[in-house]
From TrEMBL:
Native source species: Lactuca sativa (Garden lettuce)
GO biological-process terms attached to the record: lignin biosynthetic process
This protein's name: Enoyl reductase (ER) domain-containing protein
Pfam family membership, one: ADH_zinc_N
Cofactor: Zn(2+)
Family: Belongs to the zinc-containing alcohol dehydrogenase family.
Amino acid sequence: MGSKSPETEHPVKALGYAARDTSGVLSPINFSRRETGDEDVRFKVLYCGVCHSDLHSVRNEWHNAKYPMIPGHEIVGVVTEVGSKVKKVKVGDKVGVGCMVGCCHSCDQCGADQEQYCPKMVQTYNDSSMVTYGGYSDHMVANEHFIVTWPKDYPLDGGAPLLCAGITVYSPIRYYGLDKPGMHVGVVGLGGLGHVAVKFLKALGVKVTVISTSPEKKEEAINTFGADSFLVSRDQAQMQSGVGSMDGIIDTVSADHPLVPLIALLKPNGKLVLVGGPTKPYELPAFPLLFGRKMVGGSLIGGIKETQEMIEFAAKHNITAAIELIPIEYINTAMERLAKTDVRYRFVIDIGNTLKAA
């Protein structure tokens, strides 16, 4: 029996933008969403952030692409329908969906509110076990467990990127204990992840040094985002001045780069946490870790409970992403700019006003 087309697989018609092949070029697509189940929430998508992982995915740079692919996992909008058993939200509420829409609910990870590490975690788009379509679309439906309720008066457009970029840095800051006032934490990269990390750390009372290859970002890092200091990673004298000074480092860079100079910045017992996803393996000699009992760790988003906590923390401290709001028709140009790193912070697609049927 042949598989059904994206347009006829489910009963509810939908409109989106999809990549069809490894060129990564996105264009309009008619597809379908499932009916609203008893525990489902359906919402009109108003905004969707453009994550760097969207670029990797549509171009199959992680070698796991399934086409047609509709990206987007920083999705916010307004509820239009709820299932009969839904208790979390009602029609008219503002909500968000991040990087996952399913899990087993029975493993140790799910029991610990860490659904992102569930062996059966279902990604919002391009999932390996089933067909899932993301937020570059006119509406979304998800089980209420994976719905993030939106704080009152918190911006939808500036808050959308926090559903991936925000939780990606917030979770390791908390888990690795880099959230204590007076600590000194480095942030590598001042892009979509990095500038949000700076904002969270400063709200927690942490001293922050931004580490970047771009000297021109110094003024913005300090004057706009509140970093305390700035190191140019290609300047050996500057990097030498920071040796042994940091309790931890959040490394947000997804381009290939060396780790050893960063490890040198750590104090004894310091932690280098990787949250970017370079396509090539890192080179990691043992001796820089042995001399100082330093560690290199990683982190992948956060669970739903922690994501809700993060959004509420962000709203309380007026933390939003610095965004460039774009129409859906601009998405391919935005992807090219992401590939060239010619991007300010986070593209956010104005889905509600610009995604229209032809």
